[in-house]
Amino acid sequence: MKKLFIFFLGITSLLQAQKKDITLEDIWKKGTFRADYMNSLNSMNGNFYSLLNYNDSGSTVDKYSYETLEKVATIVDSKDLNGLAYFESYDFNNDESKLILGTKFKPIFRRSFLGTYYLYDIATKSLKLIGEDIQRPTFSPDSKKVAYAKDNNLFIRDFSENTLVKVTTDGEKNKIINGITDWVYEEEFGFVRAFEWSADSKNLAFLRFDETDVKTFSMDVFGKGKYPSQHVFKYPKAGEDNAKVTLYMYSLESNNTARIVFGEYEYIPRINWTKDANVLAVRTLNRHQNDLKMYFVDAKTYRSTLVLNETDKAYVDVTDDLTFLDDNSFIWTSEKDGYNHIYHYDKTGALINQVTKGNWDVTSYYGYNAKKNTIYFQSVENGSINRGVYSISLKGENKKLLSEPSGTNRASFSENKNYFINTFSDANTPPVYTLRNSEGKVLKTIKDNAALKDGIAGFNLSKKEFSTISVNGEELNMYTIKPSNFDPAKKYPVLMYQYSGPGSQQVANRWNSSNDYWHQMLAQEGYIIVCVDGRGTGYKGRDFKKVTYMNLVKHETEDQIAVAKKLAELPYVDAKRIGIWGWSFGGHMSTNCLLKGNDVFSTAIAVAPVTTWRFYDTIYTERYMRTPEENPSGYDENSPLNYPELLKGKYLLIHGTGDDNVHVQNAYRMAEALIQANKQFEWGMYPDKNHGIYGGNTRLHLYTKMTNFIKNNL
Questions:
Q1: What does the mean pLDDT of the chain come to?
Q2: Looking at beta carbons, which pairs linking 220-223 to residues 24 or more positions away fall under 8 Å?
Q3: pTM to 2 decimals?
Q4: Is domain 155-318 classified as CATH 2.140.10.30?
Q5: Whole-angstrom Cα distance, residue 332 to residue 103?
Q6: What's 30's DSSP letter?
Q7: Architecture of domain 16-34+458-713 in this structure
Q8: Helix, strand, coil fractions of the chain, as percent rounded to 5
């Protein structure tokens, strides 16, 4: 028996030896592990969708059938357009007779950009310029007009009358913005276009941002010239002044602009017209973000009525989970029962019923099919590391699973909700795209990434093992990647990876990201990779997520340290060689863990870390911490700037100098604190690179640097 066991071990080792090892070039240069993804599709009226496709002669917008997935028409081809060689975006009007085509994009921040846009009439094949260096052109519902922003002002171009109306005139850089959000709204509330048409095209509601009192942040841009330039923009850091945001409504009939006045607030994170063309829904938040109100504003009288008020001891999240029905009742999501669920309210804000219930979170709301009286959503009902797609009646009855029961499933529904494309993956299966009807029946497999699955079978990959670990009174989700030739009789170094930000998740049953392949590469080199989602992360209910309120990174750090100490007790773990790394929030965490957990962590990498929440923006930071004046201990007791003398292990600090999000100031101040504490460390600055630190050869260089650091120090 012993000889037979040794024989099988020999065969296993031989098979592993025949497989290829992953290289950094495979991950960051050759695209060896790149999955075949579907182009982002746009649902059209009826059972059709459209795709933006590129070819040697330019770009096209093509129309496809959901029923057959076959192309049925080319709507526009750039080779037929006089003066427009290609376009990079398109948007239909309501009846799909016209398109807005965009090109020559110039990025501003993460979601914002300038562009040159044209109006294209499908019937006449005519092309008209809307404007150059403009933002977010949007059709009016009657398709006669296009509203857009330029130079911080709002404009309406009427193509039926061939007129241009300048709705606002006071726009000024770093002072007044009309119809477009400021930096902090864009980053933290996740939207750029801050104007909305009423359904009858008679009114345009918009937000105005007065940034006069907001302090500026400046970054040197080194570029390639002799002298650097400066990028100067308004950035409200925790405890500082925000832009003063006000709501206006412009009447196209009277050419009058009115300011809408309602209760006290700090933020207006959403405006949405209801099914009634004369009623605008406006959401407001106080500065603590724990008191959200929704008002209905009458477009004729400008009077506002409070319809809904959500409060929380910690904070209330802002989402786009809002659908108005024909009677102006509305569907909404809330965590008020302890988990994120779907609710139905009447037009006065009275609760009709709670649609979904259970000790699990709804993770995405996909919409409502009025003809079938059915809601579609995604949830973690089948386990917090999985995602399933479901349907349920508006009354909360006949809930049905429409996707695979495990793994990660995401749905892209047709406009009429008769079909959806389901994207499925798990830790062992690359993305599989299937066309399904609204009952979940698979009609066709679109892409299955079989070639990728076959290709990676030739590499020396290890299984990602899911489990839980009990620390600090909680069962935390965890995954482990061991070397493929793992021998429990040996001792291995451990590299822990985490992000840990509020509501986030890294331990999920889904296909590999680029970091997963890097982790696999390190496993080939004899490292064990461990990832644990500690307290404060998402999809395990309100209380688990919000326990970190007022003390960001405190409980999260305690959890990672406790996990490391448990790992150190395992017979196959080298207790003196446990490291941790992370990016952004995760970089803050890895820094904190190395300092506060200096008895267990020997090594850490921090990429683009926050090093004090005093340097980060108001909306994100104060949502979880309140202001520094209200909560100084929460800010300072968990900032590594205040205890650099605790550093004992090896530390690598990395940042991009062009990071407009987590400013390089964080890294420079951390470096200065360590220098004054006479602590040696390594660091790397990436010139002009933003928070993502990418472009050209950058990622390959970055991960080569991190790999060398791990090999030399862990």
A1: 95
A2: 220/657, 221/658, 221/688, 222/657, 222/687, 222/688, 223/688
A3: 0.95
A4: yes
A5: 36
A6: I
A7: 3-Layer(aba) Sandwich (3.40)
A8: 20, 40, 40
